[in-house]
Amino acid sequence: MPEERVFNFAAGPSQLPLEVLQKAGSEITDYHGIGMSVMEMSHRSKMFQEIFLDTKNRFRRLMHVPENYEILFLQGGGSSEFSMVPLNLMARTGKADYAITGHFSEVAAKEAEKYGSVSIVCSTADTGHNRIPAQEELHLDPEASYFHYCANNTIYGTEWQYVPDTGSVPLVSDMSSEITSRRVDISKYGIIYAGAQKNVGPAGVTIVIIRRDLAGNALPITPLMMNYQTLIAKDSMYNTPPCWCIYMVGLVLEWLESQGGVEAMEQKKHQKAELLYKVLDDSHLFHCHALPGSRSDMNVTFRTGNDDLDSKFVAEAAEHGLVNLKGHRLVKGMRASIYNAMPMEGVERLAEFIQKFDAEN
After folding, report:
1. What gap in Å lies between CA 339 and CA 159, rounded to an integer?
2. pTM
3. Per the annotation, does 127 bind a ligand?
4. Beta bridge partners of residue 70, listed in sequence order
5. How far is CA 243 from each of CA 77, 79, 161, rounded to the nearest angstrom?
6. Looking at the domain that runs over 23-258, which CATH code has it been given?
7. Is 104 annotated as contributing to ligand binding?
8. What does the pLDDT look like over 241-293, one tens digit per residue?
9. Which of 1.20.210.10, 3.20.20.60, 3.90.1150.10, 3.30.420.40 would CATH assign to domain 7-18+261-360?
10. 105 is known to lie in a ligand binding site
11. N or C: which end of the chain has fewer CB within 10 A?
């Protein structure tokens, strides 16, 4: 191994806390003296059941999930939820509202069109998805079965700074990029889902928070393994769940608790983001993709406007231990993902490098 770990700014799979990796490493071949790894355990075993329940209870406690909501640990990533949400919720009226503020919300809407009538209540495509629409721009249908939006747009670096008011229409949100980074009033939502690989664990497990009364109304064509009621009834274990990933999520949540919980993470994420945005706004060379007021605290997207110069920045940053800063192909430029596990030191190092590169180019 290198003498010093790099600062990994990847959008996902992303950097994990070093303490978590070290603990997982110490238990990789022998979990708590039982002579086997968590990867080798039966998901029906007493030992794994304890791991599972501890992870689930810790998540409920950290995220302040009300008792009338179920917590599921599933497979298939956020992309599977693009199908599962309409399959389970569309039946009420056959209609759904979608806000298009980035690539993944657009894919989700197209998938939902297979199962009912989809209304695009707003779209920021005309401005390159560089902003979040205001409440008054949302053309809502009071008869929609649900309203879906992506809370943080990883590719474009925008984030909803408010919770949309949809009246009695259930609110569904993809929170993959910001789950556990801030306090959320779960009671305002019908469903929240998140791929763990960005902010709370490794790739392979998807966390779903669902209000219990919304399950049990799936379309007749819904596959067995995509029916929320089936999964709730078996507590995420109708089939073999992603055991190792759930264990890793549990370790991250334990670390998160030791750091002061989501409330502390919210303060830290603001501090990290403010530092980067200030340096970028003060620069003569760089400019941010997202407009002020819509900027993400999780994914900072920026560029110079010159593809060759952007490539030079990414290459030289890597030489300084600042890796995976290349932006998504849809936006290009650079993207710094500063999730919970990214320490302030990493952000400070990146800010210093931005200032150095700005001065020298």
Report:
1. 14
2. 0.97
3. no
4. 210
5. 15, 20, 34
6. 3.40.640.10
7. yes
8. 999 999 999 999 999 999 999 999 999 999 999 999 999 999 999 999 999 99
9. 3.90.1150.10
10. no
11. N
